[in-house]
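Researcher: Let's do a round of design. I'm pasting the structure tokens now; please hold your answer until I've finished.
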């Protein structure tokens, strides 16, 4: 199963626990395939560095290295028009369209609100874990 993780899910999985961490562990164990775009990877790096400064005991680099090596990378073009009320969230939809993937995991209410756009389902982390893990 291929899945796109919103940055909030990825970062929560690395620095906290709960369902986002379960999702990252499932990816690490080969149970799911992480799908990203260049824009998503840049955001993971940018936000990850901010959290790494706050949590110096957590090693961020190994997971980022794994993402760059193991995640399925797609070139995603910008959407022709804004879909999410927060335009920064459109990159996840663009990645889904570019990759043909129909599943995004996000805790972002703006992104969850547009679930169904072009057949793309957007699930909260606990829903994804309950349904697929």
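Researcher: That's everything. Go ahead.
Model: Designed sequence:
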């Amino acid at each position: 199963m291929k899945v796109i993780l919103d940055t909030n899910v990825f970062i929560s999985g690395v620095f906290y626990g709960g369902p986002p961490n379960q999702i990252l562990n499932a990816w690490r164990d080969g149970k799911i395939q992480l799908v990203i775009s260049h824009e998503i990877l840049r955001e993971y790096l940018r936000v990850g560095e901010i959290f790494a400064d706050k949590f110096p005991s957590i090693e961020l680099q190994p997971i980022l290295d794994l993402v760059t090596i193991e995640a399925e990378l797609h070139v995603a073009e910008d959407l022709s028009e804004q879909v999410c009320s927060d335009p920064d969230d459109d990159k996840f939809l663009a990645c889904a369209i570019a990759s043909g993937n129909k599943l995004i995991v996000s805790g972002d209410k703006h992104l969850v609100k547009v679930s169904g756009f072009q057949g793309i389902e957007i699930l909260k982390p606990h829903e994804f874990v309950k349904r697929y893990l």
